[in-house]
Each structure stands twice: as structure tokens, then as C-alpha cells.
Amino acid sequence: MGLITWSDDTFQIHYAGETIVLLPKEYALFQFLYTWKNRAFSRSDLLDRVWPLEEPTDRTVDDHIYRLRKKLQKWSHLLTIDTVRGVGYRLTRKEQQSLSPTVLNSDFSENIQKMLTTYHGMGMGAALQMLYANQQVLGFQMDSFYATYLRFVVGDFIWFIEDQATPKSDKLFYWFHLYHMTQLDSQKTIEVFEWAMRNLESMPATFQDEMKINAVGVYAHAQQWEQAQKQLLPAREVVDKVNSKGFHLFLQAEEAFLYLLMGQVDAAEEVIRRSDDILLTLPMQRELGSFTIARGLCLYHRQEIAKARRMVDEGLEVVRATKFVPHLIYAVQSILLFLKSFSYDAEWERKYRKMWTDLSDEYKFDYLQKKILAIISSPI
């Protein structure tokens, strides 16, 4: 969520090396207000969002706001929780003053950029988030690509809908992904993908290349096997042109899942074996998690259900540990699509559907889909 980082399991929030410990409902209330920062909510609204299955009173909200204000006092230069007369409460995030990039030593700026690139490539989302959250403290300013990308990584998805300052061409790629990864009905994703492809030349060149690889997965999810296999050729041309190990793994992950959904387990395992050669020299954690999940799905095809469960769960935890929120959502989506397609494990399917529902509630999947569909119905 950008400036502040979150520990859901311990109800802690972090900024610039400082940690504040909250009670569970304080944490939920603050997270909601921070997600919808700069908007006013009535006490009734907050009761519905934070205490949906309970029957507290307006005083409950007031007491929690009082305690939050006390605990957040040392971060008053970052944000405040304000009383809005006649309405309720609003969290106001304050703009931070950064050093001008011209003040920075050129070697320092170059080293920061190398760190960003390395952390990005290795799938070290927590490290990226730490740099992003502490720009003011460390005295640097991320370039526009990483400033936008890090919002995506940490799950600040609402920003991509509500921000008016960033050029739309810089957000086309993200709009597609936000719809693709939050939509379980893969047929509906085709329409958004084809809209994005019609606007492909408006995107930065790197994103144009990625979209050609994404095409394999989009059609695979929709079980359009012929079209998905047809997309492998242009995707391979992109990978050969870019000559990046990361892009090779990206395409191999899409290809493996295509074969898994087609029921071609031998072909999927061969792709996974090729990925092992790259991961031995470049242990990218996101991709390691994705291919571990793929191995687990192969085990389902082999009817080794207990082993499959353990492998899939292990892979998902590797992905979760990277702190790349979109990759976590995609991983859960892929597992669900597979289990739904083959009905190998009703119990684990229910488990992952519950996980999907929790992610949907946390990151507002329905809201994102509705807004993106409105966007694609209007000219760019």
C-alpha cells in the first residue's frame, strides 16, 4: 500500500524502520481508512466495513479512532485521522518533500537504480517495498516506472483507477492485469485483453513485449487451446529478442500452465525441467514459487494427491514470501482454475476458493473490474 508496509499476521505497521503495534480491529480500521485515504466515511460506514458481523455502537468507532490517533501521533508528518463535521472521519495523507534528484551524488543514484533492478529481477518484493516506503528518509526519488510499478507490487490497486495525473498510456498494461488476475471467468478476460492489444502501441515497449507473452496464458485460461499455442511463436520471438533469463522463465511458466490445463503432463514436466536449468543460476523467488506450484499440479495429474497438496502449498508460500501481491493473486487464481477444471481435490479447491474470497475482499476485485470495464468502454 505504498508509504506504509503491513504485517497482517502480527497487526503491525511499519515506516522508516519504525513499527507500531495495533489491536486487530485497530489494524482493520486503519487499513480500511488508509486504503481509501482522503475520503470521509460516516460511523455507520465504518461499522459496516470493520465490524460487519457484530453489533457495536458509534462509540466503538470513536474509541478506536481515539486510540489510533494516539498510536499514530509520531507519524503525524505522514498522515492524520481528521474529524469531518457532520460526516465522520477521514484519513489524510500528507505530501512528503523529497530531495531534488540534482542534489544526489550520481554514484548514489546509480547504485539505488541497480538495487531496484536487482530486487525486481530476483523477486525480492519486501526489499523493493522497503526502498519505496523510505525514499524520503534515504534521500532519493524513484523514477516514474518504479514509482508506478511498486504501487502494483504492494497491492495499491485503487490508485490505478483513481489517479488522474499519470498518463493513461502508462496504465494500460496495469488495467489489463488488474482485470485478468481478478477475474475467474476467463472468457470475460478475452474482451479486455483484445482491447489492450488494440492499444498496444500506446504502451511502453517493454510492456508491449510482455503482452505478447501474456497472450499465451490468457487464451490458455479460456481453454482456447489452438489460439494459445498459436501465441507461442510470437512470444518466443520476443524472448529471443530480449534475451533475458527472466523473460525465458516468464514464457516457460505460461507454457507449462497451458500444457497442464490441456492435460499434457509430460509436456508440462519437460518445460518445468528446462526452467530448473535457469533457476539454478538465477534463483528468482517469484518464479521458483510458480514452478513449484506447477510441479504440484503435475502431481495431481499423476494422482499423487497428498504430495500434490504439499507441493502446491509450498509453492504458494514461496510466492507469498516475495511480497509481490499480483503474483500471489495470480498463483491462487491458477490453482483454482486447475482444480476446477479437473476436480481432483474438492477439499483443497474449497480451501483455495476461501483464500480467493479473502483476497477479493481485501483488494476490492469487484470494484476494480467494474471500473476497468467502464474505462475500456471509453476512448483512451
UniProtKB/TrEMBL annotation:
<dbReference type="InterPro" id="IPR001867">
    <property type="entry name" value="OmpR/PhoB-type_DNA-bd"/>
</dbReference>
<feature type="DNA-binding region" description="OmpR/PhoB-type">
    <location>
        <begin position="1"/>
        <end position="93"/>
    </location>
</feature>
<keyword id="KW-0238">DNA-binding</keyword>
<dbReference type="Pfam" id="PF00486">
    <property type="entry name" value="Trans_reg_C"/>
</dbReference>
<protein>
    <submittedName>
        <fullName>Winged helix family transcriptional regulator</fullName>
    </submittedName>
</protein>
<dbReference type="InterPro" id="IPR036388">
    <property type="entry name" value="WH-like_DNA-bd_sf"/>
</dbReference>
<dbReference type="GO" id="GO:0003677">
    <property type="term" value="F:DNA binding"/>
</dbReference>
<keyword id="KW-0804">Transcription</keyword>
<dbReference type="GO" id="GO:0006355">
    <property type="term" value="P:regulation of DNA-templated transcription"/>
</dbReference>
<dbReference type="GO" id="GO:0000160">
    <property type="term" value="P:phosphorelay signal transduction system"/>
</dbReference>
<keyword id="KW-0805">Transcription regulation</keyword>
<dbReference type="InterPro" id="IPR016032">
    <property type="entry name" value="Sig_transdc_resp-reg_C-effctor"/>
</dbReference>
<feature type="domain" description="OmpR/PhoB-type">
    <location>
        <begin position="1"/>
        <end position="93"/>
    </location>
</feature>
<dbReference type="InterPro" id="IPR011990">
    <property type="entry name" value="TPR-like_helical_dom_sf"/>
</dbReference>
